[in-house]
Design a protein that fits this description.
Layout (H helix, E strand, L loop, with lengths): L7 H10 L7 H11 L1 H5 L7 E3 L2 E2 L5 H40 L16 H21 L4 H8 L5 H4 L5 H10 L2 H19 L7 H19 L17 H4 L10 H7 L6 H19 L7 H6 L7 H15 L2
Antiparallel strand pairs: 1-2
Helix pairs in contact: 1-2, 4-9, 4-10, 4-13, 5-8, 8-10
Length: about 325
């Protein structure tokens, strides 16, 4: 039996029957048509519900829509700073791999990667497909330029055309000594930016990249971020968490903290301020629940922004 279609009047009536207060029916219908009933209600309604079919007394459609928009807005913020993080990651991988492996088409040589033949061959196939795609499908780009002029595409060019998942897989399969160099570089960069020492291990970086990739996929495909839990726990590093200890290593909050490794101090502060502003804007629309509950669903602790600025103030005082 096919699922029953509900028109806008029926959608509004269903929400009202479950106890949601709707002040302006015409505005609610416009927003439901623009944003889709399922997208607005799915997952977001639970913050205002006593059970799946009943809204808390006094909860409103305005609150529900504000939570939905908050989810969309923080995804935009995350995506922007994940892209900035990617820039450092791509550069570091290309630089240290190319420095240590100077032969022609070095990233297609099995001895430059771990002894995992099936996974390495699969990686090579994806790299070759990427080169072939951009060399044939586009008239002018840096891949076509190098293929025409040099008959080879250097890694520092190719990395800019790799999807983040492929880039993470490339790092995962690199030789341990190459990954250690990247870990040491990120440790130095982090210490210089944030004025606190850190000892990063390659396995920790791989863990952070994997979870960063998961969040990237969520925000890029506009799936719900609130209440999202990562498939794998991140590997703990006290210097990443500092005094903002995450309750859950599989939380979005821990991914946020790990992004300090790939962003400058100024970038991370702007990232944090943007999230904090989104949170303050959300508070203006809430009366039934608290923004703490909503951000808490992705691991953000109470007073997270105050803890962050307190940490940075201490770092500024100790900076020579």
């Amino acid at each position: 039996m096919p699922l029953e279609f509900k028109n806008l009047d029926e959608q509004v009536a269903l929400l009202q029957s479950r106890g949601l207060n709707i002040k302006d029916l015409s505005i609610a219908k416009k927003l439901l048509l623009r944003s889709n009933y399922y997208d607005i209600v799915n997952g977001h309604a639970s913050f205002l519900q006593s059970n799946t079919n009943k809204y808390i007394e006094s909860s409103t459609f305005d609150e529900l829509y504000a939570i939905y928009m908050f989810d969309k807005n923080i995804k935009v913020t995350f995506f922007g700073y994940i892209e900035k993080s990617e820039s450092l990651i791509r550069t570091a991988i290309a630089y240290y791999f190319s420095k240590n492996h100077t032969e022609s088409w070095s990233y297609l040589h099995t001895n430059n990667f771990q002894d995992k033949p099936l996974k390495v061959i699969k990686l090579f196939s994806s790299l070759e497909k990427t080169i072939d795609f951009y060399n044939k499908k586009y008239l002018t780009n840096s891949i076509t330029h190098y293929m025409e002029k040099e008959k080879e595409v250097p890694l520092w060019v190719l990395v800019n055309f790799l999807e983040f998942g492929k880039l993470r897989n490339f790092y995962k399969l690199m030789l341990e000594r190459d990954k250690i160099e990247i870990a040491n570089y990120l440790s130095r960069t982090f210490s210089n930016e944030y004025n606190r020492e850190i000892n990063l291990l390659p396995g920790q970086i791989d863990s952070y990249l994997e979870n960063l990739n998961d969040i990237r996929n969520i925000v890029a495909h506009d799936n719900r971020l609130l209440k999202f839990k990562l498939k794998k726990r991140s590997k703990y590093n006290s210097s990443v968490s500092q005094n903002m200890e995450p309750q859950h290593l599989n939380s979005v909050f821990h991914v946020y903290l790990s992004m300090q490794l790939f962003l400058s101090k100024e970038q991370f502060l702007l990232f944090s301020r943007s999230l904090h502003k989104r949170e303050k804007d959300l508070k203006k629309h809430l009366s039934t629940c608290e923004s703490l509950t909503i951000l808490g669903s992705i691991g953000f602790p109470e007073n997270w922004f105050e803890l962050l600025t307190e940490t940075q103030d201490k770092q500024n005082l100790t900076t020579p």
